[in-house]
Write a structure and sequence with these properties.
The protein is mainly beta. The protein is 2% helix and 36% strand. The protein has one helix and 23 strands. It has one helix spanning 37-43, and strands spanning 10-11, 14-15, 54-55, 57-63, 66-72, 79-86, 107-108, 114-115, 122-129, 135-142, 154-156, 162-164, 168-175, 185-188, 194-195, 205-210, 214-221, 228-235, 244-248, 261-262, 264-268, 288-290, 295-296. The strands form seven sheets. Strands 3-10-9-6-7 form a five-stranded mixed sheet, with no helix packed on it. The chain has a four-stranded antiparallel sheet with strand order 11-13-16-15, with no helix packed on it. β17 (214-221) and β18 form a beta hairpin. The relative contact order is 0.09.
Amino acid sequence: MADKYRPGVVLGGILGPVGKFPIVLAENIMFADGTPLKDYIDQHGGGTPTPSLGVLTVTATAIENGQTITVAPDLADGELRRYRITDANTAPTIAYDQALVKADGWLDWPENNQVSGAEGQIITVAHVTTQGAYARAVGTATLPAPLTTDAKRLVIDKTTATGVAGTDVTLAVTASDNATDLTVTWTSSAPDVAAFTKVGAAPMHKILTLLKEGKATITAHVDGYEDDSFEFTVTAASAIVPTSIEVTPAGPLTLTAGQKQTITPKVLPEGAPQDVTVTSDHPDIVSVENVEGGDLA
């Protein structure tokens, strides 16, 4: 036996006479070289050493609205995986054989390997026994900031998606961030069918001139925003030639001063364009308040 283990030497400052030893707790005894007696016993079979906690390699990758977590190595037989997400200063300290139960905030591992945490938080991942949830291996990772979906977008008002050749339509676009003064570039995939040739519309509006029957894809673009597009259908102007106008009520009409009367003109035959303007040849006697509807006064 080496000298440091002979009876009668100083053990951690305690003098033991040959053949007689005082009763001293093992954890308080150290050899002359500073080695704790308890450590020596554990290392040399004098006791049962505590198994060490395995180490997991945990990687967190940012995804939309969260993170994807990868863990190595895989689970051993009889193990399952649990995790907790905490602030950096409250990450748990895990010991071998410690029970990691749900009551303490531990969660079952998600099947898609995805979690949702804030940037800088810590995810602690543990492999535990299926019976009792006793810790066998642990690893941590710092969560990156989730990817966001706040891309700015344009939305065209598609209430009017059809029109007749020879007419104009005013289009409007809104922005997802509620901006109202954007410089919008409007384009038509078929400028021979529908084209932006006129000015004078309000901000973020544009006048579309319908030229002939067909279809055109209309697109609104602003740098830094997602475009919006839709298909506009132009129908041919009516080929029916107007032959007469029918007025309801039929005349002649007799009105007293100050009296009003609404008349409704209809262009014949059926299907003919109904673009009618009502006028009076003696406006000092009978005036027209609504030239399109025919309100007489």
